Amino acid sequence: MGDRKISRRDLLRFAGAGGAGLTLGAGGYATLQRATDTRDAGDAADGLLPGASKVPFFGRNQAGISTTQQEHMQFAALDLVTEEVAEVRDLFRAWSEAAARMTRGEPAGEENYSQFLPPDDTGEAFGLSPANLTLTFGVGPSLFEKNGEDRFGLAKAMPDALSPLPPLTGDVLDGARSDGDLCIQACADDPQVAFHAVRNLVRIARGLAVVRWSQLGFGRTASTSKTQATPRNLMGLKDGTANIKAEDTGLMDHFVWVPQGEGPSWMAGGTYLVSRRIRMLIEVWDRVSLAEQEGSIGRHKYSGAPIGKEDEFDPVDLEAKDESGEPLISSDAHVRLARQSADEKILRRGYSFTDGFDAERGQLDAGLFFISFQRDPHRQFVPLQQRLAASDRLNEYIRHTASALFACPPGASEGGYVGERLFESV
Amino acid sequence: MKRWEIFVGALLLCAVAGCGEPPPSGEQGAGTETTAENTAETTEGTMAETTAEETTVVDVGGNPELEEATDAYEEYVAEQIVLLEERTEPFVDAVLAGKVGRAKDLYAPAREPWERIEPIAAQLGDYDPEIDAREGDVPEDEWGGFHRIEKALWVEGTTEGQEEYARGLLEDVRNLRGEIEGLELEPVDLVTGSVELLNEVSAGKITGEEERYSHTDLYDIQANVEGSEAAFEELKPEIAGEDLALANDIEEGFDQVYEELDQYRRGNGWISYEKLDEADRRALSQKVDALAEPLSQAGQVLEKG
């Protein structure tokens, strides 16, 4: 150190580095050094190909929809407490900035070393790979109108497609876990990275918005790319084999992305997100015979192939009959009902969840956090779900316990923010 | 963080922790009053026990506005301690006289001054567990103070057997008053104290666990918020000078919390906390969070100078 005078600033820095170092013991310096290296070197330090673990935040569409589905999810719905549309706009701007940083593997805000302030970033993702983090934002019907009131002067910008979903047969919805003014879908291949992102975005929103409900998803139940195998849900079934895949850009454009001229212009290139918390009656399902399990879905349990076929991707033949002339895939089987109409294709991107045990029944509170993206939920999701709700044999083993609908605006370009065209319109 | 900054920090760390390099002796004569060198010198070898707070205390001395704010807040703390004694006396008298109803009436108001300054009062000796321990916080045979008497009053409906605790409580409060002279706060105490009071609300009051027998939690919550605001008010000119928007956000946050609380006032006091359902408690909690977040940024004024 020689004769160098130590300034007040240095003292602060010293306290910053020293404080952490002391807790870490003798290895403190090395640990700090390594954390910095990981940051600087990015992907190379993760042993991944450059770029392989990052999904760009900016783009024509928001990430987290047609991008390859990650293994973990943290979803949060928020209600606005501010009454100023300018503050909502600022929030979306701040969210986009932080999201762009975090998806690059950077902290949510500038790093600060003041001993007098809490750190800008909460820190639990330091040294972790960005793990393909995507952050997808949406706005719910209640942003535009709540209790008959145009809260933010946005009512005229409300798309018809965002009208609240009608009541659906069999729904036993918990209002406290449903709906919301805004949503954040964080997906990553590391659950801590997804958690960190939502935590920091919620922190940024503090004073402007509060969390209404949140859901942790621990395993993807769909594949959105031809490079991914179809995963199994908690019933042990492969469901969603026929999902739209990102590679099918024609199908994506037809069924997922809102085209220019359909609804308000701020939604062009956007899509609508439906979430359904579908609790599986696990204990009941586990007592069901293999034949009934397979009959309910219309697929063989082990291979995932349609009943009577060998391979998962063999075409589903709804006409096939057994020796006694009965349809191989029964009239109330899930696959039959799910694909009755070619117009109702949706992009499924759900996750398995568990919220531990249900204290009342002493049973597992677990199931599928269903997420679908579609161009118009009222023309795609609603008729599909109406039919499933009316006749699906799987209904005996599931309960829809929460529901939400959000409009996900198109992606932002560098320097812009998600929702820009909506909020600049007022 | 730039690489060299870590490096400088690490060197200093190594120096103080005695890991290789000799301590930076010889720099003491440089004529600076309170610098890292001094800190390092005086704490050499025992740095592991030196908290960041102590380091910061060294750093923020010498700003006259902050010193003034600190003096004013010290006065506030002293006033509250005096008030605590004034209100505890009749409460204790009622317990000793076996007047259950009167003791119940006096219980929550007596606690208010304590709740306004709790984090600071807790620094003055070991009075917090004596005065304010909740059941289970300390071993049963050491449990006394307000909450022990609270349980007797509300659960058993008697003052019988509480004489010992009542006298002990008053003695502790009087001793605490005796410590006022020794009260020497630093600006950083105002910042951390104001946030800590809100953290008290978030962590222990919203759930109703603080006043689990009397359900007088709203008295405590209001007092915590008032105490937090008192510290903020002293710092406000400094904060506003540094970041006006932040000062306004904090003020707005206090207004929102008070507004949320006001609906639960009844006469001179508050309704039972049991009357608040989950949604009510959540709304209050979120208002407190919305206030505490910007308040936690108030520490930036300490960087001045």
Please describe the structure with a list of short key phrases separated by commas or semicolons.
A: 426 residues, six-stranded antiparallel sheet, four-stranded antiparallel sheet, B: 305 residues, A middle domain of Talin 1, two-stranded antiparallel ribbon, 67% helix
Please tell me about this protein's structure.
The complex is a heterodimer of chains A (426) and B (305). Chain A is of the alpha+beta class. Chain A folds into 2 domains: 8-34, no CATH class; 72-423, no CATH class. Chain A has 12 helices and 10 strands. In chain A, strands 5, 6, 7, 8, 9 and 10 form a 6-stranded antiparallel beta sheet that branches. The radius of gyration of chain A is 24 Å and the shape is globular. The model of chain A is unreliable at 1-51 (pLDDT under 50). Chain B is mostly helical. In chain B, a hairpin with a 2-residue loop joins β1 (265-266) and β2. At the A-B interface, α1 and α2 of A face α1, α2, α3 and α12 of B.
CATH architecture of chain B: Up-down Bundle
Q: What number of domains of chain A?
A: 2
Number of strands of chain A: 10
Radius of gyration of chain A: 24 Å
**What characteristic shape of chain A results from the CA principal axes?**
globular
* Strand and helix order of chain A: HHHEHEHEHEEHEHHHEEEHEH
The run of helices and strands of chain B is HHHHHHHHHHHEEH
In DSSP terms, counting alpha (H) and pi (I) runs of 4 or more, how many helices of chain A? 12
Specify the number of helices of chain B. 12
CATH fold description of chain B = A middle domain of Talin 1
Low-confidence stretches of chain A: 1-51
Short description:
Chain A is an alpha+beta fold. Chain A has helices spanning 8-24, 28-41, 43-46, 85-103, 141-144, 191-205, 249-255, 282-285, 290-297, 334-338, 381-391, 420-423; strands at 72-80, 134-139, 182-188, 209-217, 219-220, 271-280, 347-348, 351-358, 363-374, 398-408. Chain A folds into 2 domains: 8-34, no CATH class; 72-423, no CATH class.
